[in-house]
Write a structure and sequence with these properties.
Layout lengths: L1 H14 L7 H16 L3 E7 L6 E9 L2 E2 L4 E3 L5 H5 L5 E3 L3 H4 L4 H6 L3 E8 L5 E9 L6 H94 L6 H29 L8 E4 H14 L4 H6 L1 E6 L3 E5 L2 H25 L7 E8 L3 E8 L6 H4 L19 H11 L3 E7 L3 E12 L2 H4 L1
Parallel strand pairs: 9-11
Antiparallel strand pairs: 1-2, 1-7, 2-3, 2-4, 5-6, 6-7, 8-10, 10-14, 11-12, 12-14, 13-14
Length: about 450
C-alpha cells in the first residue's frame, strides 16, 4: 500500500508538466522532470534507426545536470536489445555492466543500474524506447519500473501525435505545392489563351477590314478613272476655257471623293477610341456598308440573282462611342447574311432566289437596324450560343467564332442590344437597337 502511494506521488509530481507544452517541448520537459524526481543521472528517449534497427538514435539525452548532444550507438551487446525486441520493461537494478561487459557506453557513463521500456504504435509496432540509468543501484526497483513503463506509454502517445502532425504538414505542403503548380499551369494556360484570343480577334478585325477594303478598291476605281480622264483631257492643246474649267472641277471633286473614301478606311482600321460619344449618320453608314459589300461580291452568279430590299430611314443619327466598331458590326452582320445566302444558293440554284432585306426604323430616342435573309438559317440547338466567344457554325477554316461575339461586345459597349432569330433553312433576322434620333434637314444645318 505504501509503495502504491509512493508511486502515485511520483507520478503526480512528474506528470504535472506545463499543460501548455506539447510535442518535442513536452517530451523534453518530461525527461527533465523524470531525472529530477527519480534522482537518476541519465534519462534518454530514442528510436531505432531504420531499416535494419541495429542502432539507436537518441532524441533527448539528459546527462548529469543538463541535456547533452544526441548520440547514435550500436544495439549489439547492450540492454537496449531486449527493449527494442518488445519486452515490456527491461530492468537491471544493479551490476548492469557485468551483464553487458561489451557495452562501451555503460562503461563511459559509469552506469550501475538500468531500466528501459518501449513505446509502440497502436498496431504494436515499435516506435522507440525510454531509458533511465544511474551510477548507483536502484533500491525502489518496482516503483521505478512502474514509473518508466507509465511514462514510456505517455511519450509514445506524444510521438504518435507528432507523427500525425508531421504527416498532415507534409500533406498540406504537398497540397500547397500542387496547388501552386496547378495555379501556375492554369496561369500559363490562361495567358496562352489570352494571347490566342488576341490573335484571333485581331485576325477577325483584319478580315473585316479586308472585306471593307476590297469594296473600297471598287469605289476608288471610279473617281480615279474620272481624274485620269480629266487629266488627259487637259493635255489637249485646243481645249476651250469652259472645258478646261469643267475638267479641273471634275479632278477636284473626285479627288475629294477619293480622299473621303480613304479617310473612312483609316477610321475603320483605327483600334482605339477616346470613349467620348459622338453623333454619326447611321443611315449613310448602313447604305454605304450594304452597297460596298454587295458590289464587292466575288460570286457573280449569286450577285446576279440576289434580291436586295432596303427601307432605310434617312438622316438617322446614332450617338456612339466608337463609330468604326459599329461599322464593323454592320459589315459582319451583312457578311453573315450573304454567306448564308451563298451557302443555300449553291445547294438550290434552280429553286432558290436569294434575298436580303435591310431596314432602319427610327423611334423617339432609339433606332433599330433589321437585317433579314432567307438563307440557310441557324439550327435551334446552336441559336442560344451563336454570340459566344469562339462558337461558330461554319466549317473548319471558314470562321473563327468571334464575329458575332465581337459584334455583341461592340453593340453593348455603345449602350445597345442585339437579338438574333432564325429557323433552319428558312431565315435569319438580326435586330440591333441603339440610342439615336432622326434629324430634319434644318436641324442638320
Amino acid at each position: 500500500m505504501e509503495n502504491n502511494l509512493r508511486a502515485l506521488e511520483l507520478l503526480k509530481d512528474i506528470y504535472n508538466v506545463d499543460q501548455l507544452l506539447s510535442g518535442k517541448e513536452y517530451i523534453k520537459e518530461l525527461v527533465h522532470r523524470l531525472a529530477q524526481i527519480l534522482k537518476v543521472k541519465y534519462v534518454l528517449v530514442g528510436h531505432a534507426v531504420e531499416p535494419d534497427r541495429q542502432k539507436i538514435q537518441t532524441d533527448y539525452l539528459w546527462a548529469g545536470s543538463g541535456f547533452a548532444d544526441n548520440v547514435v550507438y550500436e544495439l549489439e551487446d547492450t540492454p537496449c536489445v531486449n527493449v527494442i525486441c518488445g519486452t515490456r520493461v527491461n530492468c537491471y537494478a544493479s551490476d548492469v555492466q557485468l551483464a553487458f561487459p561489451k557495452d562501451q557506453m555503460l562503461k563511459d557513463f559509469d552506469v550501475e543500474s538500468y531500466i528501459g521500456a518501449p513505446f509502440l504504435h497502436t498496431d504494436g509496432r515499435l516506435i522507440g524506447l525510454l531509458v533511465i540509468m544511474d551510477d548507483k543501484p536502484m533500491e525502489e526497483r518496482e516503483l521505478y519500473t512502474s514509473v518508466v513503463e507509465f511514462f514510456a506509454a505517455r511519450i509514445g502517445t506524444e510521438y504518435r501525435r507528432q507523427a500525425v502532425e508531421d504527416s498532415l504538414r507534409r500533406i498540406n505542403e504537398n497540397l500547397e505545392k500542387l496547388a501552386q503548380e496547378r495555379t501556375l499551369e492554369l496561369q500559363r494556360a490562361f495567358e496562352s489563351l489570352q494571347q490566342t484570343q488576341k490573335q484571333l480577334i485581331s485576325q477577325e478585325k483584319l478580315a473585316t477590314i479586308g472585306r471593307i477594303t476590297f469594296g473600297i478598291a471598287h469605289e476608288l476605281k471610279n473617281p480615279l478613272n474620272i481624274i485620269i480622264n480629266s487629266a488627259q483631257l487637259l493635255e489637249e492643246d485646243d481645249l476651250d476655257p469652259e472645258s478646261t474649267k469643267k475638267a479641273t472641277d471634275m479632278i477636284y471633286q473626285h479627288s475629294q471623293r477619293a480622299n473621303t473614301i480613304i479617310t473612312n478606311m483609316l477610321r475603320q482600321a483605327r483600334q482605339e477610341t477616346d470613349m467620348e460619344p459622338e453623333w454619326i449618320n447611321i443611315s449613310e453608314m448602313l447604305e454605304h456598308c450594304l452597297d460596298v459589300y454587295v458590289r464587292s461580291l466575288t460570286d457573280v452568279d449569286l450577285k446576279t440573282h440576289l434580291v436586295v430590299q432596303k427601307n432605310i430611314t434617312p438622316n438617322v443619327y446614332a450617338n456612339v462611342f466608337d463609330p468604326p466598331s459599329i461599322e464593323r458590326v454592320l459589315i459582319n452582320i451583312i457578311d453573315n447574311s450573304l454567306y448564308a445566302l451563298g451557302d443555300k444558293y449553291k445547294k438550290n440554284k434552280n429553286s432558290f432566289t436569294p434575298s436580303i432585306k435591310v431596314d432602319l426604323i427610327a423611334a423617339d430616342a432609339t433606332f433599330k437596324i433589321i437585317v433579314r435573309d432567307n438563307g440557310s438559317g441557324i439550327p435551334q440547338k446552336h441559336l442560344a450560343n451563336v454570340c459566344d466567344e469562339f462558337y461558330t457554325t461554319k466549317p473548319a477554316g471558314e470562321g473563327t467564332g468571334l464575329g458575332l461575339w465581337i459584334a455583341k461586345q461592340n453593340v453593348e459597349k455603345n449602350r445597345g442590344e442585339i437579338h438574333i432569330e432564325s429557323e433552319e433553312n428558312q431565315f435569319t433576322q438580326v435586330t440591333i437597337e441603339l440610342p439615336g434620333q432622326q434629324r430634319t434637314q434644318e436641324a442638320q444645318l
